[in-house]
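User: I'm putting together notes for a lab meeting next week and I want to include a structural view of one of the chains we've been expressing. I don't have a solved structure, so I'd like a prediction I can at least talk through. The sequence is below, exactly as it appears in our construct file.
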Amino acid sequence: MSYLTDPKFQDQCDAIIQGNVDLIDIDEQFKESYLDIIERFYTLFDSIYQYNVEINEFVSRVRENYYIDFSIETIIQEKEGKRLLIEAYYNYGVMLILLDRLIPAIARERMMVCYVRYKIAFGTENTAQVAKLLKNTGLISNPGDCSTRNQRLPVKYPIDYFNRFNVDRPLVENLINALKDDDVYNQLAAYPNPSHRSVALANQAQIIFILLAFCPRVLESENAKMREISDKHFPDNFVIQIYQGHLVDVT
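Assistant: Thanks for the context. Below is the predicted structure for the 251-residue chain, given as structure tokens.
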């Protein structure tokens, strides 16, 4: 990402290309052949960033009493409202993980540089934030492998990655507490056998795994709460599906 953050390096790269006829031809051919694909990928990257912005704006408006009939507390007290807030943050976390798993960092960064060069010439505040989102996390994985078996995970992954942008941590902690204490999706009634409890709460397990990465204090310091979460959601279930075939080994 040095091209986006260092104007001198940007000028050097552009000067090298403009000073060589062959490189100019290659650059033009590449732009003509792949600009549409690059634009589609940038739209994807920007949409993930905008998703986080819009969640934060919505929560901020609720806290400022923009919606007269609603507050964070009343929304969490309602089953559907609680589920929607939980799933909003869960979906954001899943987007981040799939982005990092399926599009290697070097490809993300190069597509970002190409988009800036070909479309807007100079980075804007928005492109700077998108570039921050796409920055290498240190994850080494095979994009074709949906499990964590062959991945090399960096220290504190995905906590540092998830916290590149602010989320409303007090709210996420409240949602984690709701998942810890309740059967949010009313599945226990369908699985009355105690030995099937982990099956009944499998959906909550994958959600709480994602939400915990937004709250490192809970994950790293609150041992009693983590013991409750572990005993309830992971008593005998250590490989969870976070999204349609994408697995995580929590051991």
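A couple of points you could mention at the meeting. The radius of gyration is 22 Å. The mean pLDDT is 88.

User: Perfect, that's what I needed.
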